[in-house]
Amino acid sequence: MAALHLISRSPADSRALEQCLARAGEGDAVLLIEDGVYAAAEGSGSGEILRAATGRVMVYVLMPDLEARGLDIGSPCLRAAGANNSPPSPAPALHPVDYRGFVNLTASHRPVVSWF
Amino acid sequence: MGKKFLFILRRSPQQGARVRETLDMLLTVAAFDQPVMLLFLDDGVYQIKRGQSPESVGLPAVAPTFEALALYDVEAVLVERESLAERGLTESDLVIPAEAIARAEIAALVADQDVVVTG
Amino acid sequence: MLDVEGRTLETTADGFLVDPANWDEQVAAVLAAGIPIELTEAHWEIIRFIRAYYLRFHHLPNNRMFVKAVQKEFGAEKGNSRYLHRLFPESPVKYACLIGGLPKPPGCI
Questions:
Q1: How far is it, in rounded angstroms, from Cα C79 to Cα C98?
Q2: Which end of chain B is more exposed for a tag (fewer CB within 10 A), N or C?
Q3: CB contact under 8 A, B64 and C58
């Protein structure tokens, strides 16, 4: 069974997301929760890291936590983080989940690993 | 055979209380004769670095507690080779024997567990 | 506060010695006087063990760990819950630490 990795801290004060992705296995799931959802925000600097992981792991975002912070999944940085004159990179696929989706993820993955 | 437990320590020893709680959880699980592994990642490798003197700045020493692992028959102590190398450390800088494994091996190790506790 | 032969030693509200360095066998006898335990060589063996454990590892076990640690040191004959409860009723690790002049172990009330 593939692992589920939980990221609960903002990329501004923890490298948890990056450190997790460096170890996550092919087919693992990563779920951004609590302040971890800031990785999906414009200017978080996580676009590149997430893009590099796309295809290897599934990255989910807990929507209630995202919305509670006034963010949405279509943040511009995630669509086009290409710096300067380089063409915009394709957006990393972020999959929205609600609480039920969260529960389903914990049921369909093992083990669950928290990174903070 | 019980569930397989992996404890991962990623924080520096200065984040004291949390590491102690995690370590107590690990030792308790070990005392119930469950299979337990311990893995040091990232700044967690500093937990078992030789030559620390946290008492000199008024912090409790955690490194000596890791020496109790052997008393509870916790023999599976692992450390990520890249985490050591990034900090200019080798296995000989550690207060307890730990088996170095590669970053690329971590995913398979994690996938093999029933419960993973990070601290 | 604890009075031992003219020395006044600080204790916590639960009666645990504040500074383990102030401990000796006379202090232990006074600490044990407050609880209904008569110290024998079997008790001293366990008390000396938990003191050495604490000073070496900077750690205090809970009861489950304590049984395991005693088992590793002295064998299954002493490293079992029944033996330790007979020496130190209710909570072996709590009373071994109390008499041994150590802090209150985690998870003890």
A1: 19
A2: N
A3: yes
